[in-house]
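Exercise 7b. Backbone tokens:
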């Protein structure tokens, strides 16, 4: 999803909040923490992962605003900025053609997540929407930031918001797959 539009990203977050709440808001803590197998995340862990990824962008933008952010050399090469942004966005497409391992910084806890993780997610989205709205000047200026997972992977902040939305859509599909599997297995 490419919007490069603050209202578009906020609208997408509202849609995703509704989808997660409608789909998983009535699940118990036990159901949110149930895993199809030992190597697959639970629905709760998927939601926790989304929050971890999104919040990892906050310090970068705070540094940018404070004038303490140092753009790596890759951020000064427009071709690389565009290439990395497009590459990462393509990698998080919602269709989930193949499984991708996340960076350790974004892995959810191995322990159970809170039973109110869906409400925490909805609160997080309100905060994220305000963060995006407050970043509109940076989007307009074409500010370049690093990926929170690797300083040398760079893209424009607007592309970061595209990536955030696509990543969430991908994980909505993953959580639905987990739910469907558990229902078929009689575990939900």
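Sequence design result:
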């Amino acid at each position: 999803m490419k919007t490069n539009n603050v209202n578009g990203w906020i609208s997408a977050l509202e849609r995703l909040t509704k989808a997660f709440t409608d789909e998983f808001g009535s699940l118990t803590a036990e159901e949110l923490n149930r895993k199809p197998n030992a190597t697959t995340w639970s629905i709760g862990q998927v939601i926790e992962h989304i929050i971890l990824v999104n919040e990892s962008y906050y310090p970068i933008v705070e540094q940018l605003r404070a004038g303490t952010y140092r753009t790596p050399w890759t951020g000064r090469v427009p071709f690389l900025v565009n290439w990395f942004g497009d590459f990462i966005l393509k990698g998080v497409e919602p269709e989930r053609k193949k499984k991708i391992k996340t960076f350790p910084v974004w892995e959810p806890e191995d322990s159970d997540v809170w039973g109110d993780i869906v409400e925490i997610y909805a609160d997080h989205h309100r905060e994220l929407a305000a963060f995006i709205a407050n970043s509109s000047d940076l989007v307009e200026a074409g500010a370049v930031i690093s990926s929170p997972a690797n300083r040398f992977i760079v893209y424009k902040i607007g592309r970061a918001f595209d990536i955030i939305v696509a990543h969430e859509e991908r994980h909505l599909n993953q959580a639905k797959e987990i739910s469907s599997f558990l229902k078929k297995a009689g575990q939900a």
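Instructor comment: The CA atoms of residues 65 and 110 lie 34 Å apart. The domain at 6-184 is CATH 1.20.120.450 (Four Helix Bundle (Hemerythrin (Met), subunit A)).
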